[in-house]
Predict the structure.
Amino acid sequence: MPRRYAEIYPSSPLLNSDAMRHVSAAALMSVRYFQAEPDSMPEEVFAEHHVLLNLCDTPHRVQNRRDGEMRDFTFYKDEIIVTPAGMKSGWRWFGQSDVIVVTLDPAKVQKFAQSELGIILDTQQFADLPQFSDADLCAAGVMLRDALESDDLTSGVMFEAMSRVLLVKLLQRYGQKRPEELALSARFTSDHYGQVLGFIRANLDRTISVDDLAGEVGMSPSHFGRVFKETLGQTPMQYVLAYRIEQAVEMMKDASLPLGSIALDCGFADQAHFSRSFKQITGQTPRHYRALSARN
């Protein structure tokens, strides 16, 4: 059974984002910073993507076995290794490490790519990239590390911002979009998805029908409904409802916004309709959810 990457670290991280429980970006990724003596990690299959960002000024020897193939190489500063979820991987390093390890849950990455970037990812999501140089991405990682290290009120805000920057950079540069040649015979492509998402965003405060969405991509409603569900795993109206709730949750972080106003801005008929729908999706009423968030 695939394991979480953190379960087999041979040493404890100096910094760990898991302690930032109430930062919403912490749900997208875990960030850990290590300066570890020479050691090794056994080969395992992991349920998460893991990304290693090397900050060490001194090049050092590293061995990485990936799906049975041994790589023995010199690891240089600002080099990165991306290992997709599901790949069997093990490590041995021969010098003191200075690395940031970012782990990503595939389901959350898929959701972020779809809702934030309008991208439909391939099932592997990230390319298998054993070693490459990207100083810009490493610099974003350093800013994440610095946000973890800071103990002031701005650290959560900085971590929130930089975690999104890092993930967007990763997805745009190294994410694997769903190949058009593998698209369904109905041709519901990433471009179609982007059009649908753009329409939902622009019309969030009003009623949206399957006919509206189908018309946006030039398909019949029945055809669109079928290929949309086959591609995204839910009906168009289930998707619209979930998106409305996601946006409502973000708006509810502003305590000055009345729930009734949020309900209308997110396309619900009234506050009662919003409350019923919110509880259907989250298991809590909006009022209870907001109160719990305020206490945390």
